Amino acid sequence: MVITGVCLLAFLVVLCFFLGYMERKVAAFMEIRLGPNRVGPKGSMQIVADTVKLLFKEGLTPDGADKFLFNLAPFIVVITSMLVVAPIAYARDFQLWDINIGVLYVSSISSMAVIGILMAGWSSSNKYSLIGAMRSGAQIVSYELSIGLSLISIVILSGSLQLSEIIESQANGWWIFKGHIPVIISFVIFIIASTAEINRAPFDLTEAEQELTGGFHTEYAGMKFAMFLLSEYINLFVVSAIAATIFLGGWMPFHIGGLDAFNHIMDYIPSSIWFFGKTFLIIFIIMWFRWTFPRLRIDQLLNLEWKYLLPISMVNILLVTAMAIMGWHF
Amino acid sequence: MGSSALILLLICGIAFAGGGILLSKALAKTSQNLQKGLPYECGIPTIGTSWIQFNVGYYLFALIFLVFDVELVFMYPWAVVVKEVGMAALIEILIFIFILFMGFLYAWRKGALKWI
């Protein structure tokens, strides 16, 4: 139990380091720069150096702050983002907790992060923080609906909430391929909505640097700030992993019907490589968004969700249901 | 490893966040001065309290969200059995979504989705 816990923590920390490194390198690649290249080979130790720097920073609590809530918020944010990791299937038969309501579990726990963010913003006693937190609250609760509806479309098709069964149902083809147009629509909606849910650009209104300095974590310093950063990266990984599991077949290898030789070669690639490959592809796409789209305004953000994504995904649910029951194809 | 994973992750989270913050507290140098505890601003002290009344728009969206979230919770069990139930499930959900959509359109027409 202790060993599992230590391994898990080590895995998550290494993952966050890697994502931090990847974020900088992808940003540099998009802007034709070099990115970090001084500390360690190819700059790979830069993020470790940054962590050590944050460790030596004083964790400041402002005088006017609500001290208890202010110190509780990083805990809540980290714990919720860690709890979501439980039902993810990393490889064949390698799952921490194969809970039978996996999809519901993920969507319910991940929506709890908003409590930590609102708590952080409110208790900081800073106007920037409060605006950031309120925006974040409105944004996360709104986009949660689209995420839920796009997940439900796959639940309808596979007939199970358990993540392992959803993966099994994709043995003869990933949902994105055999689900036709309705599933592609829900995949696109899922990617857009989850980018908003984890507060990443172009939906990073909660920490829009140019207008709110740091958003809800303006007042946080040192390790407490690092906790927010860490949970942000874990959330990024989790939503990508869920998208890869639900739509892209999790650890299932890529098969083309009829091409047996090709399928055999694909089977030789380990299942964990398939899972992480798909996950990092989606992470790369979400990072790509950041350097492609300008930031939205709060009213545009809410319009996009309530006037476009939500009606579309509700109609989409009906299409998927018709597809599942009557065997129609679109 | 079953539901004990939940407890394990909970302990991991608390240990990680607590350990990190405590370690930083032990390692970091501290200093005190008059300006340090002030809220972060662009250079001048903050005017008035930061805990102010907020734009009502946020609360309106939260209320509409509540309606749809309950709908979503209803749809999860429905989605699991929809293939077994067959046609009846489709008709039921059509009626359900129709009623919900009418309410949504009403809220839209009344301007609940308009940002003030």
Can you tell me about this structure?
The complex is a heterodimer of chains A (330) and B (116). Chain A has a two-stranded antiparallel sheet. In chain A, α1 crosses α11 (222-246), α3 packs parallel to α11 and α5 runs antiparallel to α6 (127-158). The radius of gyration of chain A is 20 Å and the shape is globular. Chain A has helices at 2-30, 46-55, 67-83, 102-110, 113-123, 127-158, 163-168, 175-178, 180-197, 209-212, 222-246, 260-268, 271-290, 298-326; strands spanning 89-91, 94-95. The mean pLDDT of chain A is 85. Chain A contains 14 helices and 2 strands; from the N terminus they run αααββααααααααααα. Chain A has 2 domains: 1-56, no CATH class; 66-326, no CATH class. Chain B has 116 residues and is mainly α. Helix content of chain B is 66%, strand content 0%. Chain B has 3 helices and no strands. Chain B has helices at residues 4-27, 56-85, 87-109. In chain B, α2 runs antiparallel to α3 (87-109). The radius of gyration of chain B is 25 Å and the shape is flat. The chains are: A mainly alpha (330), B mainly alpha (116). At the A-B interface, α1, α3, α6, α11 and α14 of A face α1, α2 and α3 of B.
